[in-house]
Amino acid sequence: MLQFSLFSEIKCGLSKCSNPMCLFLGGTKTTTDQISVDVEKLRSAAAWTFENILVLFAVTSLSHAGMEDMGVDTSRSCLERLEFDNVALKKLPLDPSTEPGVRQVRGACFSRVQPTPLKNPKFVAVSGPALALLGLDADEVLKDPLGPEYLSGSKVMPGSEPAAHCYCGHQFGQFAGQLGDGAACYLGEVKAPVDQSPELLLENPTGRWEIQVKGAGLTPYSRQADGRKVLRSSIREFLCSEAVFALGVPTTRAGSVVTSDSRVLRDVFYDGNARMERCSVVLRIAPSFIRFGSFEIFKRADEFTGRQGPSYGHDEIRTQMLDYVIETFYPEIHQNHSDRIERNTAFFREVTLRTARLVAQWQCVGFCHGVLNTDNMSILGLTLDYGPFGFMDRFDPDFICNASDTSGRYSYQAQPAICRWNLALLAEALVPDLPPDRAEQVLDEYLPLYNGFYLSNMRKKLGLLRKEEPEDEILITELMQTMHNTGADFTNTFRSLSQISCPTQQEEEDETEVIKQATELLLQQCASLEELKAANRPTMDPRELAMLLSMAQSNPALFQMISDRKTVARQLERLSRLKELMDTTAEQLTAKQTEDWSRWIKKYRQRLACECESGLDVKELQEERVRVMNNNNPYVVLRNYIAQNAVEAAENDDFSEVQRVLKVLEKPFSVQEGLEKPGWVGRGGAVDSGERDETGEQGNTSGAEARVLVPYDSKPPMWANEICVT
């Protein structure tokens, strides 16, 4: 009877309490947690009766009902609890066709698609900081049995509306017509958590994060491809997105990389040696993935290629998309300008500023994008679409990270000019909403903006903090020239500069010794004779070069069709440099490198002396210099050999190296104890690095038989020269 009366009180109490999570036991307000305690008391009491069972059944049912009434379902996946608000699909025109397959999409910015499921998807790695943008906990996502399915597009999350974005682009200087998301798939826009930091809200004023899955299958824009990405390219994009963010450079983010048992055929080097590779998917995160090429879908027929944008003539959609971008992502500009022309000009000026700042940051960390087409340029000034990117090892202004870029159009030193060219094409795409004369005025501001950002960043990298001297630009130029002449490692040379101290009165008598020690420090980062010979070999076959030289004289018109003078001049310069090196001994090279660095260090120390004037505390200044320099000169970057090693580990079903590299790259400005070296090295195992031999190389580098196990902050081992990224 006691149990029955308790059951009656529960029913009675519920009718009196406005909170369904609360029950009354004997007139006392009690939560469901407390009920479980009382049930335990019942469990240990007299023998179980029918009434006992009724009590337990009632308590359990009421508890679950209460949770559901409050909108909380503990059985749901954390990804199913994401709140979507897909504004882009509401504000921009959608393709009404659901016709499958590749097609031209006219009069629309998006097409609805259905991602193609993967077979047995599984996580390779996740980025905690990136997932936190969506209010997700990395550990919870990893434990979620549905996580790999949802984050690969194999299963669609509640509220998600898969779609592909339509855009065009100028690729390697030529208008390519319709391109679009051939492998990427918009899943929707996730509302940011309420406690998102103010800094992130400044970066993303919408309070929403667009999420994409890259490699999720066919879309109307897949052209001749299959809409899939493979493990190697997915790991590279995942790691580099997070690495670039950690360096302080604006970028899209990567939340996870998923691989599978699904396979596709790939010819990596386009040489006929195709192989089956695992389909993989990257989760990408950004305020928006709208790009310069998004506005080129309205382009009239191109005078060179004859191609036109699929939405040519739909000027009202261009205006609609421009309004959407400004109102959504540049709200201050929208609020401050009632006149449309003034508003649009201010918008273009801000995009120009962000682009100039972005490319200056790339140059200062030695990053080369590789494919700076207009369809790979973010309208928000973010690093977008990581393909054949590369961080420079040995400094070379002509560094080309994309083996397919035979002309060097997107080389390291070409990036600032190419970004301005792309801005000019964006301005052209915005006419008449942006009058050409107004756009030209803004474009004239680009180079001064870029130079200002570049010089400011470089001063921090050199520890020039107190003064801005006119000769700083010359000092920086001479540093880069010295690095080039000596084949110095870009990242490690800058990191080493903090060890060169400001001169003091006590050091005047030892100036020669100080310069000698500093020179020896930097010589450790210089290339050996054999490395420089390999680096300066022409990339063009000698017979082809001879033919082009002859053609340039005999048939200039034909020469212009198949090559250009800049490409040929670069090859001739390499030949000249190689001939010079062939006539040089290792001892002569070292002597020349020593002379070059001693000369520059002397000038650098003279400039540092200017920082110490006006009675400043030299010790305090030196401490500040080291701190600032070490926060602007990374200890480690995602070199190609580091990424390749992680890829090969993953291809051997060991994902630990990808996860290890991610941890290292999340804190690129500091050494992390226990994470100094790779945990996995392929091709015949590892040989720990030894002392330098007579050739200047480290350890035993016997080709494919073994790899040198070097720290993440080391100059690349010899086997890294074999890596080719297309």
Automatic annotation (TrEMBL):
<dbReference type="GO" id="GO:0016779">
    <property type="term" value="F:nucleotidyltransferase activity"/>
</dbReference>
<keyword id="KW-0479">Metal-binding</keyword>
<comment type="similarity">
    <text>Belongs to the SELO family.</text>
</comment>
<dbReference type="Pfam" id="PF02696">
    <property type="entry name" value="SelO"/>
</dbReference>
<protein>
    <recommendedName>
        <fullName>Selenoprotein O</fullName>
    </recommendedName>
</protein>
<feature type="region of interest" description="Disordered">
    <location>
        <begin position="680"/>
        <end position="706"/>
    </location>
</feature>
<keyword id="KW-0547">Nucleotide-binding</keyword>
<dbReference type="GO" id="GO:0005524">
    <property type="term" value="F:ATP binding"/>
</dbReference>
<keyword id="KW-0067">ATP-binding</keyword>
<dbReference type="InterPro" id="IPR003846">
    <property type="entry name" value="SelO"/>
</dbReference>
<dbReference type="GO" id="GO:0046872">
    <property type="term" value="F:metal ion binding"/>
</dbReference>
<keyword id="KW-0548">Nucleotidyltransferase</keyword>
<keyword id="KW-0808">Transferase</keyword>
<keyword id="KW-0460">Magnesium</keyword>
